[in-house]
Amino acid sequence: MATNKKLGRMLTHPAALLGVDLIILDKGGYTPAKQTLLAPQGSEHIDGAFTSEEHIRKLAKECDVLTVEIEHVNADVLAAVEAEGLCEVQPAPATIRLIQDKYLQHKHLRDNGIPTAPFAPLDSREQKDVEALAKELGLPLMLKARTLAYDGRGNAPLKTTDAKEVAAALEFLGDRPLYAEGWAPFVKEVAVMVVRNKHGEVKSYDAVETVHRDSILRVCTAPLRADGPEFDGINAKARALAERAVATLDGAGIFGVEMFLLADGSLLLNEIAPRPHNSGHHTIEACTVSQFENHLRAILDLPLGDTSLRVPSAAMINILGVSDDMAPVRKMVQDALAVDGASAHLYGKADSRKARKMGHITVTAPSDAELRARMRTLLSQQPDLDEAFVDSIAPAPKQGLSNAHPLVGIIMGSDSDLPVMLPATKILDQFNIPYELTITSAHRTPDRMVKYARSAASRGLRAVIAGAGGAAHLPGMVASETSVPVIGVPVKASVLDGVDSLYSIVQMPRGIPCATVGINNSTNAALLAVRILGTSVPEYQRAMEKYQHDLEEEVLAKADTLGQIGWDRYVAEKLKK
Q1: Is the full-model pTM beyond 0.85?
Q2: Which end of the chain is more exposed for a tag (fewer CB within 10 A), N or C?
């Protein structure tokens, strides 16, 4: 295995558990990957560059399968050792060679029907050629190095074709071959890890949102959330596009597929990494089988593992060096150990420097809201992150306002229903369940209602409580537009005592289920929502069991008091208020 140190280190863990022997090619005798796994008996790890023909051939002679977890290797030598029968190479050398040139990679994707941002080669560095590309692709424009680029070091945005700006961009990119991409007006950056075995079987992990700062990934959150009906089913769409893109490549292993999510819900593929990827590190703690174990399974012809999330919500936070001092890095790890659901990984690098990836923290939680609260604590402890960035990722909840990451939605057709719906908020507060509360009418704001219902699932809502009086169309209409369970609360109107509302909700046609509770009883609606959540979150189920036990104790205490003081005194003292 040729390694770039940190990714190789994380591959050694599942290799040890599976009894897979690894021989590591990397420059240095005590690099991160070599620290965590001994070479097989009678062999030793190789000290050499992963671009060196001599060292690649030495590794190939000792391996049955040679794999890489960095694409900046000598693909020509890999192709030669496989052609000569020295060993099998996965993923295919042709795929690695293709991925190494981002322009050729984009051309391959476009030729195979995969949507990308518009792009074109830059054949010279003359001002007139840059201006011609800007005219063709529009401004702003991204100039990109075709090779040897990562963490934004091969990207230079152009807002204008001013000669000084162009010259500065070209100087930054150096003497590498270049191409240009038209600007993708994305609302989110998205990534999907895809694993493919030798027989072409493909599995993908849930899509994640990736957040970069200074072109370096700082945070990713899983699963992908997006607000708006145009994003309905976006997780599945992103996974499908990533799987389709990987299917155009040869060879087995794990692939990191980066995409842009646009405002209309469409996706553009940005680039593919034929290896474990930073945006998949959360899979170690958050998924049934990690990206690293699945990479080994894929290249060794073992059954692919389950890629599903084991937890409702997860995140990864990169630990970056802030100076040449290791003390801040160690403190970030120490602080993380005090946060529930947080797991720290240090990469064993001997030296710290500014913006160097020194490790990462995985965070898991029973809900998006709890995840963001834990992330806020962790991000606030990173010395190079300002408060504005922390707030953009994990805003602090505000008393009396909707949570930014709710599990339950409370909606009503009019503010006159608010007094009836407030008891539901008290129950959800009691169970510490994040919720939102808003007004949307089935008759007066039908577009708003439809948008709300269609975006409920993609935003992470798991139950909707809808209060409505009179015709009471709101619960049923919302239920017809979402896969999320809807609980209707019949609101007592000025006539018919709310029975008309109750009858309206319970008479939904087959195929459109909508639960309901007693008239004006939003308390029971909230308790039913808690029970729905409890089927997948044990914490809420345990809280519900305690609530029921407390109710039982309350009734038994009342019965005991009634028996001791008699009913006349009980009525006078307990019931008259």
Answers
A1: yes
A2: C
